[in-house]
Amino acid sequence: MKDYYTVPQAAKICSVNSSTMYRWVTSGKIKSHSTPGGHKRILRGDLRSWLESNEIPYDADGFKTGNGRILIVDDELSIHSYLKNVLGGIFIDLEFALDGFEAGKKLVRFKPDLMILDLFMPNMDGFEVCRNVKSDPATSRIKVLVLTGYGTDENREKAMSSGADAFLDKPSSRKELLECVKGLLSAA
Question: Least buried of 63, 95, 158, 176, by fewest C-beta within 10 Å?
Fold first, then answer.
């Protein structure tokens, strides 16, 4: 097993581009060492410490670069960006849909293990999407996490009755979101 990584190798592990990783290294966010030729190297333990301090899970043999396919269904592009930021460094297979109809098409092609679903979207709301997913034998195995800005008791009850496996309010902490996603995928 390798004891150190180059900047491009560390960037690939963290699912960011090399220039972003280089900025993190040169700013001191991630501890690094320089070779006699001036090239930056990141020790495995230092990268692991950074991942832990940022609450990014990894496995014992290496770093997670994918642990399930996730379809994010939300009509707000800012939520797509936020979830890509939180989950993108851990889960390589992310796909996005802006409404229930687009989600239906992507379910067939992408075959996700988990769907993160908003409740209130144009054309088809999340309750209907969830019922459709859970009632179809071809998709019923997909875990559904409802992530909504309307976290009332009534909406929670209706979402869970529609087949949702978990329910979180917007905004949820990075830690809470990661724990929920990890739990759902391990049960998938």
Answer: 176
